[in-house]
Amino acid sequence: MFRQVAHRLLTRSTTNHSACAAATILRPYSTDVSTDASSGDSAFVEAWKKVAPNIDPPKTPIQFMEPRPPTPSTLPSKLTVNFVLPYAAELSKAEVDMVIVPATTGQMGILPGHVPTIAELKPGLLSVHEGNDVKKYFISSGFAFVHSNSYADILAVEAIPLDRIDPAQVQKGLSEFTQKLNSASTDLDKAEAQIGVDVHSALNSALTG
Amino acid sequence: MAMAALRREGRRFAPLVSSPNPINAIRSTLAPAEEQVGLGVRSISTQVVRNRMKSVRNIQKITKAMKMVAASKLRAIQVRAENSRGLWQPFTALLGDTPSVNVKKNVIVTISSDKGLCGGINSTSVKISRALYKINSGPDTECKYVILGEKGKAQLIRDSKKDIELILTELQKNFLNYTQVSVLADDILKNVEFDALRIVFNKFQSVVSFLPTTATVLSPEIVERESEAGGKIGDLDSYEIEGGETKSEVLQNLAEFQFSCVMFNAVLENACSEQGARMSAMDSSSRNAGDMLDRLTLTYNRTRQASITTELIEIISGASALEG
């Protein structure tokens, strides 16, 4: 019996030693594990484990996203555009030469190597230039982000290719909203009518210009 | 007297020869059938078992139909949920993901379903919300709930009634669209003061797998604070702001837009998860009903054969009594 106990003690100590050795070998690698993208925010997971150790922590959006490439050292030749709407991703990682977005401060052209920008958009014309062909959309407002790695994200609530717009309806809408603006009484009505006028005049100029 | 003894024996052995794992309810429903024998009725009644079989068969049909309905609804909404996935990615790329941010006023937006029979997804969302509440409530921080959906309301109103700010139900009465969700988001933003909004929902990964997820939307002041402090949103200052008069106005619009976009995706994903969970719950329910039906059929046959045997014994014993 003593022989068995001694044997068991020996094996346990050797397994402990090998486990320790394994742990010390593994530890330098743990810092190499990519932190946020795959395992989520570590501080959050820690706080979670203290409060609810039996439940798995919930996932966070960054774990479902492909990480963006870092800023390259040389100027890239193409701009990578993600143009998203609530109902569809119109362009996803499309490599183009230039996009022109209707920012509130006017039409803004974005080329590869553009300075990082957050631009608020107003209703207007968006054009995507790839080589010789140009795709034009009329977008309702949204936002455009340009990142330092020549990635551009354009978010809009609605986007329609120009050939689907009916000019007669646009004129009718414009006159209707101008009339509403003139006869508006409360601030809310005035603001709504103003928005209508802005959108329709932007549509008009997009169709003509 | 021998016949009476035989009959008594038959009655005593009847429950012993039934299946090794009898359903307790079945045993209890068979007991009155045997008592009828004791009172002098000739044949053991199979009526009780037959009634039970009919009701189980109806349940099986209903749950199978519900599964088909859920499958067709899932197909329709899954396409829309997958298309809306591109909407929140630019915000996470710009502002990063900071669920461990430490703020004073936290608001937990729990998204749940209105109808039941959808498995455990609502309980999971509520458990996660409660845990987030515990993490974020401290001596100088406060935490409030905004609940979307009847099932979440039913669970959270029991113990967190004073912390609930807003309850919104019947989201899916009309077809879910961005306008509706942006009105909802507007409602929430107007009525609730927040530094950080934590949206809890079930992300649809596949028909059998739903991952509880929490997305964090920060108010513009906190975004400024975090970007000045460095850390994940550290390089927000390097971005030039175009449009609007001041930077804070643009950041305000950005936060509101972010909230409505993330909400839209979250609501669609949760609806998908609900239909998927309902499909699998109804599927296992109809399978269970099928198993129950098989067991009931065996019991029915046994009961029927026992009654036939009893009749035969009586006839034969009667005949032999006459002869002998």
TrEMBL record, chain A:
It comes from the Eukaryota. This is Uncharacterized protein.
Automatic annotation (TrEMBL), chain B:
The lineage of its organism: Eukaryota, Viridiplantae, Streptophyta, Embryophyta, Tracheophyta. It comes from the Eukaryota. This is Uncharacterized protein.
